[in-house]
Amino acid sequence: MQNPFENAMKQLDKVAKIKNFSEEFITRLRQPDRDIRISIPVKMDNGSTKIFEGYRVEYNNALGPYKGGIRYHQDTEINEVKALAFWMALKCAVAGIPMGGGKGGITVNPKELSKGELERLSRGWVRKLSDILGPKKDVPAPDVNTTPEIMAWMNDEYQKITGDKTGAMITGKPLDKGGSEGRGTATAQGGFFVFEALKKELNLPEKCKIAIQGFGNAGSYAALIWSKAGHTILAISDSKGGVYNEKGLDIEKLMKYKKDTGSLSGFPDAKEITNEKLLETECDLLIPAAFENQITGANADKVKAKAILELANGPINPEADEILYKKNIPIVPDILANSGGVTVSYFEWDQNLKNEHWSEKEVFDKLRPILEDSAKKILAKSKESNTDLRCGAFILALERIEAKITL
Ligand code: GLU
């Protein structure tokens, strides 16, 4: 497994060479403000106690309270969390929201835990970190394998410890517990707004053929939103593999099938496809919506999409970036493409602090112009410096952070 933090720093170095940022500033951004590792003892259902390793990385708060999700995964480790926290700092800057960057995680396969064990683990994470969390300090949210229900447990635990009743210490909560309308679909919906804003620039046809890697929160809603808009989803996968139909998949049926059977495999009217092959699908748009380091020096050459939109964080490594650039395959970078999630998280935080509840229409009416504006600015930055969209996004983000940071 490649070190995602090293990759993130390579991206930073590349941009520092293109644009003249001060050396002090770039040096400062090579380290998080703090990275915290905790051990969480959990009483298991069989009476034993198991210790889990957890993390919170507070990368930078020049623009506002640290903000970013919590990932539960068996491969989660500190370098992954550091990379994700760094990208959060840039992502919030790209979106122009008053939030800094953070990320958390626990090394665990949550599918192996009972619901009670999962709840005790989640509450344990908050107990160890309650001093540093808070609406004006550090505001977590969901990420891979963490759900609104988990956010509600965490908020409840925080409330018990601190007495804070705003609910603004964490976002992505269920609707009846202070969550925002639209937060569940926001990452995919935001990606779609960005896609629409850049479609012409990317030379994409009116109706696209699309392959999506990942069937979690981002991937499954992306499939639904793009197909409802008349595009064709040729292929989609989850962690175990995927399905392909050259005429297009019926996404609503597929969602129901996955819910009923727990898997995509065996879905009628479709061929099975591996995750590896999915990335090589001939299509207009490839949407990686799963994990880091999926497209690397080892397979970038085989990508046949006309353009890529990163709904996952860090799915393309720096080596692959170079190969795809030479192949003329534009990449809409993660810190723009998936920033709809954290932007609606910010809306949730704002609603909690003002004791308001906005309609889904209000939420998306506010989200769309933010993303269109960021997309436009990033395009201009990349053209100005004769570079790719990722560097354009980094330049916009770094300029915004540099303007506010105290060195
Ligand atoms: N985990 C999401 C991301 O990577 C959302 C973070 C948030 O809402 O704070 O952007």
UniProtKB/TrEMBL annotation:
<dbReference type="InterPro" id="IPR006096">
    <property type="entry name" value="Glu/Leu/Phe/Val/Trp_DH_C"/>
</dbReference>
<feature type="binding site">
    <location>
        <position position="67"/>
    </location>
    <ligand>
        <name>substrate</name>
    </ligand>
</feature>
<feature type="site" description="Important for catalysis">
    <location>
        <position position="143"/>
    </location>
</feature>
<keyword id="KW-0547">Nucleotide-binding</keyword>
<feature type="active site" description="Proton donor">
    <location>
        <position position="103"/>
    </location>
</feature>
<dbReference type="InterPro" id="IPR046346">
    <property type="entry name" value="Aminoacid_DH-like_N_sf"/>
</dbReference>
<keyword id="KW-0560">Oxidoreductase</keyword>
<keyword id="KW-0520">NAD</keyword>
<dbReference type="InterPro" id="IPR014362">
    <property type="entry name" value="Glu_DH"/>
</dbReference>
<dbReference type="Pfam" id="PF02812">
    <property type="entry name" value="ELFV_dehydrog_N"/>
</dbReference>
<dbReference type="InterPro" id="IPR033524">
    <property type="entry name" value="Glu/Leu/Phe/Val_DH_AS"/>
</dbReference>
<protein>
    <recommendedName>
        <fullName>Glutamate dehydrogenase</fullName>
    </recommendedName>
</protein>
<dbReference type="InterPro" id="IPR036291">
    <property type="entry name" value="NAD(P)-bd_dom_sf"/>
</dbReference>
<dbReference type="InterPro" id="IPR033922">
    <property type="entry name" value="NAD_bind_Glu_DH"/>
</dbReference>
<dbReference type="InterPro" id="IPR006097">
    <property type="entry name" value="Glu/Leu/Phe/Val/Trp_DH_dimer"/>
</dbReference>
<feature type="binding site">
    <location>
        <position position="187"/>
    </location>
    <ligand>
        <name>NAD(+)</name>
    </ligand>
</feature>
<dbReference type="Pfam" id="PF00208">
    <property type="entry name" value="ELFV_dehydrog"/>
</dbReference>
<dbReference type="GO" id="GO:0000166">
    <property type="term" value="F:nucleotide binding"/>
</dbReference>
<dbReference type="GO" id="GO:0004352">
    <property type="term" value="F:glutamate dehydrogenase (NAD+) activity"/>
</dbReference>
<feature type="binding site">
    <location>
        <position position="345"/>
    </location>
    <ligand>
        <name>substrate</name>
    </ligand>
</feature>
<feature type="domain" description="Glutamate/phenylalanine/leucine/valine/L-tryptophan dehydrogenase C-terminal">
    <location>
        <begin position="180"/>
        <end position="407"/>
    </location>
</feature>
<feature type="binding site">
    <location>
        <position position="91"/>
    </location>
    <ligand>
        <name>substrate</name>
    </ligand>
</feature>
<dbReference type="GO" id="GO:0006538">
    <property type="term" value="P:L-glutamate catabolic process"/>
</dbReference>
<feature type="binding site">
    <location>
        <position position="217"/>
    </location>
    <ligand>
        <name>NAD(+)</name>
    </ligand>
</feature>
<dbReference type="InterPro" id="IPR006095">
    <property type="entry name" value="Glu/Leu/Phe/Val/Trp_DH"/>
</dbReference>
<comment type="similarity">
    <text>Belongs to the Glu/Leu/Phe/Val dehydrogenases family.</text>
</comment>
